[in-house]
Every structure is written in C-alpha cells, then in structure tokens.
User: Fold Secreted protein from Actinomadura graeca.
Amino acid sequence: MNLKALITAGAATAGMLLGNAAFADAVTAVTAASYDFGYENGFEGWSAKTDETSGAQDCPTRHNSSIVHSTAKARTGTHSLEFRTNGVGDCGLVYSDRQFQVGTTSPVKVDLSFWFWSNDKPGPGTGGKNHVLAYSGADCIADPKGPIESNWEGFTNLGTTGHEEGAGWYEYRYQATVTPNSSGQICVGQAVMIASTYRFFKSYYVDDTRVTVS
Ligand SMILES: [Ca+2]
Assistant:
C-alpha cells in the first residue's frame, strides 16, 4: 500500500481528528509540487506586464506603470518585485505571470500565495481602492481586457490593497483548478488593479511567492 492509499484508507479517522479541510491538505501534500520565489536572483521566470504592454491599451489614459527588480523592500532576503503603479487615469492592470510545466493535461489544483507590501489605508484615499488580483489558466493572457467592475477578464479579485493596520506586508492566497494546455503547461499571475486616482508612481512590493500544483 502506497502512502496515498494509506492516507485514503485512514480517511474516516483523519476526518474525525483533523476535520475535512485538514485531511484534504494531507492528501494533496503527497503529490504536490511547490515552487518558491524570493526574487533574490531577479524575476526568476516571471514576466512583467501591463494592460499596455500586452496587446492593445485598455485604459483611456496611458499610465506607463511597470514592474522592476528592487532592493527598496524585501520580506525575506534583500530583493522583491516592485510594482510601480500610476493612477493618473484611475485605471490599469500591472501584473507578473509565469508558466509552469505540470506534466499532465488533466486538471490540476493550483495554490498561489504571495506577500504584498502596501501602505494603503482602505477607502477613497490614494491607492485605497486598488485591488490585488490573481490569475491562472492553461495559457498566459495575451491581451487582458478591462476593467470590468472590480476585476479584469480572467483574473480573480483577492481584495483591496488597503489595510486598517497601515504599511506592511500582507499575505494573499488564491486557489483554482486549471486544465493545462496540450503541452502540459499552466500559467499563473499576480496583479495590481489600479482603481484609485493619483498622479504619481505608487510602489507596491511582491515577495515570497509560492505556487503549489497538485
Ligand atoms: Ca526576497
């Protein structure tokens, strides 16, 4: 009996002791592959994109936002990815995405988590209405479409960038089931949606991204 079968056989007991959620995590851990990114060595395979650099410009006003490798903030180590967002037109999508070879064309479960530095307070102040988004799919989005209410097409809203506690690192999590493309690849993305008005470059930072495929 292999380990997974052994855990399955013990399902009833584990469910009673740990609860169903804890049991589900124990099962997926057997076959999961995790990928960690601390950005100490650059973008580590992630691509920096915006709605302006991927396909046609979507917002009425150009914002020229970008993502750069930075030493200004780091949750661990000395580097992170700096999302430089300009709210000049109250509109924009700034994101990094990355392909993963998952070795199957059958659906896989994707768990994404990352730490996000923000100094926004919730509400109408500068940046407080911006949003953190995540993406997963068979292929990376060639031309994001938006904004569509508090989101962009194909992305998932993980919450605003504003926090009552003020400046600091906040963890965002996302889960999805993805059917890989015919080459056994999936694409995962982490994004800032600009939805506040401010006429300068406001920096957010992303560090310690973890992608688990099971
Ligand atoms: Ca780091």
Summary: The chain has two domains: 1-31, 33-213. Residues 33-213 form a domain with the Jelly Rolls fold (CATH 2.60.120.260).
